[in-house]
Amino acid sequence: MMIENSTDVITILEAGGEIQYESPSLERIFGYEPNQLIGKNVFDYVHPDDRQRIMEVFASTLQTQGVSETVQFRFSHQNGSWIYLEAT
User: Which whole-number Å values give the CA distances from 84 to 2, 4, 30, 55, 58, in the listed order?
Assistant: First the structure.
């Protein structure tokens, strides 16, 4: 219930970056209905200039469980613009 009503976007990813879940707030912030992104690779929506760095942070996080890093990057809005965000 907390996730469904959160103002933050909550995403669950597989190890390869495939999106398994998107919270309802995704639509308000990024313009996508949550089901639109299920099964897609999250890195396809990260700005090309940020993608390599974010992939490296993600891979590092998978290898060091229990330790999370906060990163800032740009994510594609459905209208084609870029939204700056911070993710943990």
Answer: 24, 22, 11, 17, 17
Q: What is the mean pLDDT of residues 1-15?
A: 83
User: Measured between alpha carbons, how far is 7 from 28 in angstroms, rounded to an integer?
Assistant: 9
Neighbours of 72 (CB within 10 A): 11
Segment 48-73 mean pLDDT: 91
pLDDT of residue 8: 87
DSSP, collapsed to helix, strand or coil, labels residue 88 as coil
pLDDT (tens digit, 9 = 90+) per residue, 20-40? Answer: 999 999 999 999 999 999 999
Half-sphere exposure of 27 (CA within 13 A, CB side): 8
List all residues 6 or more positions away from 41 whose beta carbon is below 8 Å from its beta carbon. Answer: 16, 17, 18, 19
Contact between 14 and 24 under an 8 Å Cβ cutoff? The reply is no
